[in-house]
Amino acid sequence: EDAMNILAKLPLIASYIYRKTYKNDEHIPPDPNLDWGGNFAHMVGIEDEKFKELMRLYLVIHSDHEGGNVSAHTTHLVGSTLSDAYYALSAGMNGLAGPLHGLANQEVLRWIMEVKEDLGGVPGKEQLVKYLWDTLNAGKVVPGYGHAVLRQTDPRYMAQREFALKHLPDDEIFKVVSAIYEVAPDILKEHGKAKNPWPNVDAHSGCLLLHYGVTEYDFYTVFFG
């Protein structure tokens, strides 16, 4: 019952934080005719039906974490002590305060926009291959690639890619994301240091939020949580 109550209230809490922080504390009441994800989009203040569809997808795929990452593992760990659901969830949320976990998709998006700026727009294949090799040879990583468990493309990445191909195929940031996907795995395989050269969920999510006007990067962690 506690878990169901938390799930029911999370969209209201998250949208309240968003409107209070970024929209002059002007709040939008829930619409009882909308579903969970659609209502969240409505209370945030984005009425685009495609964004509501995105939120239905986004919230579901970001709940699919089993026990592997910091926040999911911490929630399970605290819950295993027979602590109540509120304490367990709040412990997991605290894990998102760490930038290595909570800032994952923001860092990917910033890097993608940096690639676009450095290469003067959507890059060609040869440009991008050189750029990625320069990045790796400088001792840096390709943000959004690799996973602690998976050894293939993250299915959550593919779900977002399918959404983008359907709804925003001409978006320039998506085109950069797509171009990186076409070349990065082979480069990372050849480089030889990455156990998993495939993209994870964070490699795609930021560009979708940005497309629909969510420019407040700090809030992306709340979307994820």
TrEMBL record:
Gene Ontology cellular-component terms listed: mitochondrial matrix
A GO molecular function held by the record: acyltransferase activity, acyl groups converted into alkyl on transfer
Pfam families for this protein: Citrate_synt (PF00285)
Keywords: Transferase
Xref: InterPro entries: Citrate_synth-like_lrg_a-sub, Citrate_synthase, Citrate_synthase_AS, Citrate_synthase_sf
GO annotation (BP), single: tricarboxylic acid cycle
UniProt record similarity statement: Belongs to the citrate synthase family.
Official protein name in the record: Uncharacterized protein
Source organism of this protein record: marine sediment metagenome
